[in-house]
Predict the 3D structure of the following.
Amino acid sequence: MKIQTNLAPSAKSLALHAGVVLLLLALNFLLPEYHRGIFARVLVLSVFAMGYNLAFGYTGLLSLGHAMFFAAGLYGAGLPIYHLGWNVWPAFGAGILAGGALALVVGFLALRTTGVAFMIVTLMFAQVFYLTTLYFTTYTRGEEGLVLPQAVRRLSLPDGPLDLSDPSTRYLVALSLFTVVLAAILFLVRAPYGRSLVAIRENEERMRMLGYDVFANKLAAVVLSGTFCAAAGAAYGVLFGYVGSGFASIQYSILPLLWVLVGGAATTLGPLIGTLFMFYVIDTASSYTTAHLLVVGLVLIGVILFFPKGIAGTVRERWLRWLP
Amino acid sequence: MTAALRVEGVDSHYGHVQVLRSFELELRRGEVLCLLGRNGAGKTTALKTIMGLVPATAGRILLGDIELSGLAPHEVPRAGVAYVPQGRRLFAEMTVGENIEIGLMTRGKGRATRESVLDLFPVLRERLTQRSGTLSGGEQQMLAMARALCLEPQVLLLDEPTEGLMPSMIARIRETVAGLRERGVSTILVEQRVDAVLPVADRVAFIENGRNRETVAVEQLRADPQMVHRYVGVG
């Protein structure tokens, strides 16, 4: 008899994810200009949220410092483009490497703590990073930030360069990155390594007693998470042409937590749902009233009441058990 | 009979409180050794110290020729000691199959180990796709044992495996432990219920205030029931 272990994504979940990607592709041709711009931004920030979800949702590491990984990608790509005239491809690679390396160092130190101490340590590291971007204002221009010239935001391809400032190109590049990361996360979380992360979240000591090196597994999760967040940051810089300290602030460490909680922690589509939902709630509410944060607060209370495990998390719990 | 596991003069502490004091224990190859004692005597701490979860501050712990006391906690199971804690601690949201898979992955064990473990617990074979949190107490205990046995250990440490189980399940657990002995696995069984374990034990070690007071063969214990009363407080 073959054991049913569910370690590979089911046909249903593969079809669902492919459907979501195809729908997003279709939206590029259907959405008006304004909404296409919002969606492109949401897709990149969803990658940030997916990276955060790997650490928080799947591994149970409540970090308050993931803005530093996003910003490491942002600056890692943006500074070489702005100051050294690098092309987009190597700059994008540098951004990812910067975030991955930072995550390795921060993870190595921060994972010696757990729980509230881990939150505080990651917050402190992120604040140090934020203040560093302000300290070197000669190069970063601090909060004012750097605007990457349109002329250098071109992606070299064999058929000729792509202008990343073009709305449709920007949307499609954002969607490509989103698709790659979504596929990576989908396979990762169903693979043995992904299941071991969930088991570590459930009971670290038990995993140690099954012979798992919990520290090494958690460190790998932080590095992967930081790398995905850095990829989002690097993409944000080259697609939207702005690199500023605000992205390293505490607000950008809280936002992915909020998006993941609203969308559903430890679900593959939750980060997209949460980011999209929050963007449109804020956008819609702010177009009617200046007290839009009150509306956002009330909507969040409603979400928590009716979807206590986030939107995708609750849907999985109540209706679609197969949802990854 | 040679020793599978030897604990020699081990001390261990929780903060400033010393729990084990020059603790000695010898587990022979292929035997079931029952560790008995009152609440707070140090039974669970003894198991946790063997596993490296509570550090030994003196003495040494040997698995054959391998000194366990210097290893990181996650290296002890890889060396060949598996531990099933009190309360089972399954991954409740995962299926039975996934729990077993998690146990198999550490040492790269494959289908043969999986089948061998499931042969010991046929009931789990029927519930592979069921969430482990929905199993009955007895089935959960079996799954906890199955997951530990995926490591193919030389030594198995069981902490109160019969706690909260009905008599028929306790008999099943006993049968399983006896079956493991046939396979050459040496077992330390921590229990408070003497009647639940005596039928399967070869020897009994009594622990009091963190010290091993006496280790006797089961026959000797049957001949002197007062011994149980002396160390455990029940007859």
Confidence is low (pLDDT under 50) at residues 1-6 of chain A.
